[in-house]
Structure formats: structure tokens, C-alpha cells
TrEMBL record:
This is Pentatricopeptide repeat-containing protein. Belongs to the PPR family. P subfamily. InterPro entries: PPR5-like (IPR044179), PPR_rpt (IPR002885). One of its GO terms (molecular function) is mRNA binding. It comes from Zingiber officinale (Ginger). Pfam families: PPR, PPR_2. PPR repeats lie at residues 253-287. NCBIfam families: PPR (TIGR00756). It comes from the Eukaryota.
Length: 506
């Protein structure tokens, strides 16, 4: 389907190629591509993508028409007022009346060119269908007020937000037919394909861009490709894009770095993550908060708690107030560590997470940690919360940690109570739970209750093993009940679980 749409796009180009020279194109003089001049010395870097179309319009129009800060704010205020009026319309009824009252055309004529339209579309992006209706109406004024590439780019992006890649492609074709085949148009369609999971189509758009003699991939284009391959975990393709950026001598941006770091963190390529981060520390583009958040996550995943804590100290205030996910990631790292003070650090972080931010997986990790530390009171409180919230533990490792907690505290009655509730709640059961209970009953000379565990095992279809009989034999033998111990020995042979090397020394 993607290939058919692009074939149709190419046909449209050919159809309108003869008309391009006669179609007037409204472009600010500074829109013309400037020759790239790389400065001498180290590789040239820029600090940011011009990804905000409103700011781009302002930058491109400054040499053409100076706009005072007061005029710009006045225009923005008027656009926001119009946006509020449109959002208040019931189901978009009366849209044409509001736009055709003269207010919108007047706003479009006010400098900087294109700012009012892009600002209005941005203001309406939470209602993308309404925004697309506005853009459709705005195109009707194209004979009087030319549509800028940035406006088409914004509209294509909005179409992507509605999951309508067909409409996005149609808007792209409209722009090409009007002679507006700018790189930002290609970027918008690539981005739309990426967010809608159309990897192959996004690559086709990129290939088409490289064939367009009037356009050239920018660092924004490559950043989209990097994001695309990062999401798909296509690391070989991502590294080829990096090589292509190097060959074209395009400046890296903070988005380039962050996208690549995110990809390597997801792929668990810690050496690559560290190398890129170090190059940022040594270069002109310094890590921003997003970079530090990624590094914090990466160090937590890799278990490098020392560096995780160093990064956390740099962004502590923001993480504590806004990044609950990162707090949980750090807690997870601590629960899996062997740090002697991990309980103290986990509890300090847990105080920062609101009570309504419950996560079943985190609760289970905390249960395991407190069980490993032998703090069964806290462990049982967390277990009770898990039962209440109908959390189901499915991993044997967690169940064995709980078992060890009870065993180390010689709390067989607590273990029995937990096991009964776990059976009802559908938690993962294993034979070791029952064997441990038998051992603890035997140690306390509660042999009748020990024997009753066999019925529990049978109810949950756990067959008796050699170890089961061995536990019973030792329990009877250690209390001097030799005849019962010998009968257990005979049962082992009866079930085919004995051998000539058996020697039970008590």
C-alpha cells in the first residue's frame, strides 16, 4: 500500500512539473538554501533542531520584516482568542462563519508570514480533526495569501495524529503539486509514518527525498530516521544512518545525541552509551535534562549504582517532582543490588512516590527485597497489599525468597498462613514451599502436621519425590521414632525412589 501511494506521488510530480515554473511560490528570501561552510578545526555542531515551526517562521522572516516583540505577542494573543472561539463551537458547527468573518484572513496578513496559521494549528492540535478543517479552509485563501511549507508540514503532522496516513500523503501530494516540495514537507510525512508504525513507507519517503534535486536531507531528517530505527531496534540501520550523517558533515543536535543514547540504552549497549555521553561532556553540546534522564535509566538498568547516583544528584529536584517512572527505575535497581544500605535508599525514594501510584511489579520486587533481608513484618504488609489488589506472583524466584524469609525466621505458622492465601490467590506454587513447611514442622516435632502436608501436595498435584521421603525419614529418626522412619524408608523403595547407596545416619 505504501509503495502504491508513493508511485501516485511520483506521477503527480510529473504531471505538475511543467507548471512549477509558472506557479508563484511565496518564500521568504532567507528560505533559500545557504551554502554549507564548515568551520575549520573540529567537527561543527549546532545546539538545537529548528523543529518548532513557529520559531522557524520568525527566524526566516527577521531579515525580511522586523517584527517587534509587542507585535508578535499581540498577534499570538489574537490567534489564541480565535482558537478559543473555535474550540467552543459545538462539534465544529459554525466553523466557516468564524473563519470567514474577516478575522482569520486579517491575522494571516500580519507579519511574520505564516506565523498566525501555524500558531493556530498548534493551538488546536489537541483537536486534530478541527485543526485539519481549519487548514482546509485556509487553503481556500491560497490565491490571495500563499501557503507556506511550514503550514503544510504542520497539517501533515496533524493528519498523523489522527492515524490517517492516507490524508497525510494526500496533503503531501497537494504541496508537491503546488510546487512546495521543501525538505520540511518530507520530514513531516516521514515523522507521520514513523509514529503510525509505517517503517517501510517512511524509508521510501526518505529515498524519494534524496532523489529530489530541489531538496536535501537535513539533520532533522536523519534524526527522524534514527528515531525510526531506534523504535524498531534496528541497530545496524541506525549505525548506517550515523555514518551517513558523518559523511554529509551535518551538525549533530541534542536530539541526535538523545535519540542515539535512547536506542543504545534499549539495546543494552552500555559501552556505546558511555562513549556517546563522554563525547557530549567533552564537546560543545552539553547534556540536557533529557540526556541525564536517559543516562540515569541506563545506569539503573546496567546496575551501575555509583554513576546512577551521580546523575541523580544533578537532576534530583526534577526527578523527585516530575519523574515518577525514573524513581521506580532507581528503586528497581536498588532491589536487585547487594548494597548494605539498599533498604534505607529504597524507603527514601518510596516516600517521594504518591500512594495512588501503585505498581504491581514494584510491589513484588519490594516483597522479594524485604524477604531477602529477613524483614518479614514489612514483607507481610506488602504481601497483604498484593492480595488486596489482586496482584498475582508468577515467578518461582520471588516465592522462594518469601520462603527463605519465613525459614530464616523459623516462622512456620506464618508460612502456612501465607501458603494458604497464595493457593487461593493463584500465586505460583512450587514443591519447595511444601518441603520447607515439612522441614520446619519436623524441626518443631509437629509430625502430624508434617504428614498433613502430603495431602496438600496431592491437592495441587505435586508428586512425592525422593526428597519428600528423605525429609520425613529424618524428622522421624531425629525424634527417636525408628520404626516410623524405617517405614518411610520402605515407602521410598516401594515408589522406586531408593537405591543401594542409601544410608540414613541420624
Amino acid at each position: 500500500m505504501a509503495r502504491k501511494q508513493l508511485v501516485a506521488l511520483l506521477l503527480l510530480r510529473r504531471r505538475f512539473s511543467s507548471l512549477r515554473s509558472s506557479i508563484p511560490r511565496f518564500r521568504s528570501p532567507t528560505l533559500a538554501r545557504r551554502p554549507h561552510a564548515a568551520p575549520s578545526g573540529p567537527r561543527w555542531f549546532c545546539s538545537d533542531d529548528i523543529s518548532d515551526l513557529r520559531e522557524r517562521i520568525l527566524l526566516l522572516s527577521e531579515s525580511h520584516s522586523e517584527v517587534s516583540k509587542e507585535d508578535k505577542e499581540s498577534l499570538r494573543f489574537s490567534v489564541h482568542a480565535l482558537a478559543d472561539e473555535l474550540l467552543a463551537l459545538p462539534d465544529g458547527q459554525g466553523l466557516e462563519a468564524s473563519l470567514g468573518s474577516g478575522c482569520f484572513p486579517d491575522l494571516l496578513r500580519r507579519p511574520p508570514a505564516g506565523f498566525a496559521s501555524v500558531e493556530l494549528l498548534s493551538r488546536l492540535q489537541s483537536h486534530p480533526l478541527l485543526a485539519l478543517q481549519v487548514f482546509d479552509w485556509r487553503k481556500k485563501l491560497s490565491c490571495e495569501i500563499s501557503v507556506l511549507p511550514e503550514e503544510y508540514s504542520k497539517a501533515i503532522t496533524l493528519a498523523g495524529r489522527t492515524k490517517n496516513d492516507t490524508l497525510a500523503t494526500e496533503l503531501f501530494c497537494d504541496a508537491v503539486a503546488a510546487g512546495i516540495n521543501e525538505t520540511c514537507i518530507y520530514n513531516a510525512l516521514m515523522s507521520t509514518c514513523m509514529y503510525n508504525g509505517l517503517t517501510n513507507k517512511a524509508i521510501l519517503v526518505f529515498e524519494d527525498l534524496k532523489k529530489d534535486a530541489k531538496c536535501k536531507p537535513t539533520i532533522v531528517t536523519y534524526n527522524i530516521l534514527l528515531s525510526l530505527f531506534s523504535r524498531s531496534m534496528l541497530m545496524d540501520h541506525l549505525e548506517k544512518v550515523l555514518k551517513e550523517i558523518e559523511d554529509s558533515e551535518l551538525p549533530y543536535t541534542i536530539n541526535t545525541y538523545n535519540t542515539v543514547i535512547a536506542a543504545y540504552v534499549t539495546a543494552w549497549r552500555w559501552d556505546k552509551v558511555e562513549n556517546i555521553y563522554q563525547s557530549m561532556l567533552e564537546g560543545p553540546i552539553k547534556p540536557d535534562d533529557s540526556t541525564l534522564f536517559l543516562m540515569l535509566r541506563g545506569y539503573a538498568y546496567s546496575g551501575n549504582l555509583e554513576k546512577m547516583e551521580q546523575i541523580y544528584d544533578q537532576v534530583k529536584e526534577t526527578v523527585n517532582s516530575q519523574q515518577m517512572t525514573l524513581l521506580r527505575t532507581m528503586i528497581c535497581a536498588y532491589t536487585k543490588s547487594s548494597q548494605p544500605d539498599r533498604i534505607k535508599k529504597v524507603e527514601a525514594l518510596m516516600k517521594l512516590i504518591p500512594e495512588d501510584e501503585y505498581r504491581a511489579w514494584l510491589n513484588v520486587l519490594l516483597i522479594r527485597m524485604y524477604a531477602q533481608e529477613g524483614l518479614i513484618e514489612v514483607m507481610e504488609r506488602l504481601i497483604a497489599e498484593a492480595f488486596q489488589r489482586q496482584t498475582i506472583v508468577t515467578t518461582t524466584g520471588v516465592m522462594l525468597s518469601i520462603l527463605s524469609g519465613y525459614f530464616n525466621n523459623n516462622a512456620v505458622d506464618r508460612l502456612a498462613g501465607f501458603l494458604k492465601k497464595a493457593e487461593s490467590a493463584g500465586w505460583r506454587l512450587c514443591r519447595s514451599l511444601y518441603h520447607c513447611k515439612m522441614v520446619m514442622y519436623g524441626q518443631q516435632n509437629r509430625l502430624g502436621e508434617m504428614h498433613g502436608v502430603l495431602d496438600e501436595m496431592e491437592n495441587f498435584r505435586f508428586d512425592r519425590t525422593r526428597k519428600t521421603f528423605l525429609i520425613m525419614y529424618k524428622a522421624y529418626a531425629s525424634t527417636g521414632r525408628r520404626s516410623e522412619a524405617e517405614s518411610v524408608f520402605g515407602m521410598m523403595w516401594k515408589h522406586g525412589l531408593g537405591n543401594s547407596d542409601d544410608a540414613f545416619v541420624t
